[in-house]
Amino acid sequence: MPRICFVLIGWLLCRLAVAQTVTVESLADSGISLRTTWAFRAGDDPTWSQPNLADRDWKPIDPTQLVADLLPQLPDRLGWLRLRVTIPKALRTQAFTLRWQQTAASDLFVNGQLRRRTGVFPTDGQPIQATNPFRRHTLVVRPDSTGTLTLALRFAVQDDGLSVGQYTAPDSHLFLATLYPADADLTDSFMIRWQPIAGAFTAGLFFVLFLLHTVFRFYNTADRTNGSTALACFCFGVAFLAIAQLFTLVDTQTAYARWTLLGTLAYPVGYVALLTAIYAIFEKKMGLNYGIVVGLVGLCVVFFFVRRDTDLLWIEFGPALLVTAECSRVMLKARRQWGGEFITAGMVAALVLFFVYCLYSVDELAFIRPVALTRFQVQIIYNTAVLCIPLSISLYVARSFIYTQRRMAGQLLEVQRLSKQSFEQEKERQQLLASQKQRLEQQVAERTAQLQQSLDELRTTQNQLVQKEKMASLGELTAGIAHEIQNPLNFVNNFSEVSVDLLEELREERTRPAPQRDAELEEELLSDLVQNLSKIQHHGQRASGIVRSMLQHSRSSTGQREPTDLNALAEEYLRLSYHGLRAKDKSFNASFEAELDPSLPPVSVVGQDIGRVLLNLFNNAFYAVQQRKQQDEPGYQPAVRVRTQRVGSSVEIRVRDNGTGIPEDLQRKIFQPFFTTKPTGSGTGLGLSLSYDIITKAHAGTLRVESSDQRPDAFTEFVITLPI
Questions:
Q1: Does residue 423 lie within any of the structural domains?
Q2: Are residues 168 and 109 in the same domain?
Q3: Residue 30 falls inside a structural domain
Q4: Is the peptide bond before 712 cis (omega within 30 degrees of 0)?
Q5: Which pTM value belongs to this model?
Q6: How far apart, in Å, are the Cα atoms of 399 and each of 91, 232, 330, 404?
């Protein structure tokens, strides 16, 4: 009887010696969680591993708490955890598998025996090295003869590399353990096995896009799109590479924390770079809206570091929503831009996938989920959503690059064709010069006949213009044409008369007897004759060119639109208008200037009608500066300027003079029929009215006036806008 009492007392003392106990009633393949309350004590003592240690005065603690929350209780960064697991008799002969994750360096004792060491303790002469919390450790254990598993965990935690401000690396739990049957299938879940592969694959795609856009950036340094897109792809590649690293190659807690922080910060930087690329593609200024979005992204980052309980969605999903919303706004305003369908499709896909990801990531929205998805499927949806926008930009850039290459190839073929044509023309010109000496007299007759024919055609053209012209500027146009052609005609007539005299003198010299002929004189006469004929040819060609140009613009109009060079049209009618006024008033002088945009494309217009409009505006401009010049204003210099430029999808022609200007109360009347500011008998009042109808009704353009009559800064400027 006393012996039985001693046994009972000893058993009670053993029960009291262990403060924390877990009793296993049964054990399924899913295992039993040991994430219950363990006994905890700070410090380090090897005897604390003994199974019969009296630990009832140890502090109960939750081992799943974050390491950062436990640090204040560990002045030396060392501590112990103990837990007693009671196995029923039916299971005592079986082996069990203990599987755990930890964020610490640890020695695991089972029933007093050291079974597993992970990480590095400071007693080894090295800094503490905790393990990656994603690493899963497995150990086969057996209970003692009494059916007890006494687990003692000696651990050391580190505080360097774990936190920045209030940020703590996620999933940094101290100790998470589960007990399984020995024959349980402990193969990692599909999510754990394939997430690093999916992350590595997605990172590879982003790095390939990064290399492509980097090459494009060096190929075209003026385009900011490729630089920003390359930065965005690099950041996203780093973020997904971090996911692959955390599940595969990272062993220590320091590396885990740094990779996690690097991958987390890469998201907002990547999204800001992506927004910059969208602004560059659609040629938007980075103004207030851009600054607001970037500022909100920055607030997400700051909030993430100052609030410990902030979820990763703040810094990953928050910038994604902000940037995607702003990109959508920009695209809606520029939806008609060439190639924008790629980016629009990518943005729509990203918005839909982000919505699905949010739906399956927020537990409060579980009631509206249409179907059940695994965590891996949700992660794939997020990876695809992040990839959509950069991939759509890459497709847009690739299409632009192909288009540019094709256009350059076409231009190269055109240059080759023109070069070949120029070579053939040069060859023909050389052949013509070689035979010219034998046909001098014949050419004189031919050129004279051609010149006469050109004069006849010019008179016919002038008669047609007189019959069809509806504006009062016909006199100035005819005078300008005559002035342009008079100079070469004078040269032709003068050199023709001199050539006839030279031929008569040469004939007289050759009729003399051979002893009396002067060979040097004959050679000199022939040389002078060649020079005169060359000059006749030059000025004849000049007159012929003027005639051809005028015939082109004065032939009967069919009313059909044709591609027209507005630069050439404006320059020609500006010159004709000036010379027309000069022909009427020899004392008039004014400076005129043409600022022509060389990149202006041909515009489909009725060239004859637009020419009439320009001529009318030029005549009015020169008339205005002439009137002001006659007022003898000190220091006044008359000037007329025409400028062409492309504005969006339109061509703009501005005709400006520094004449008398138009009073403000008359500006709204100048386009009315029969209204004129000229003296009675000097104008019909139909010029601007007809011009307004030609521009607005026949060509769907606009014609407006800007003017001021305040001296000395008086001016008038007519602005023509024609759609391309």
A1: no
A2: yes
A3: yes
A4: yes
A5: 0.46
A6: 68, 19, 20, 9
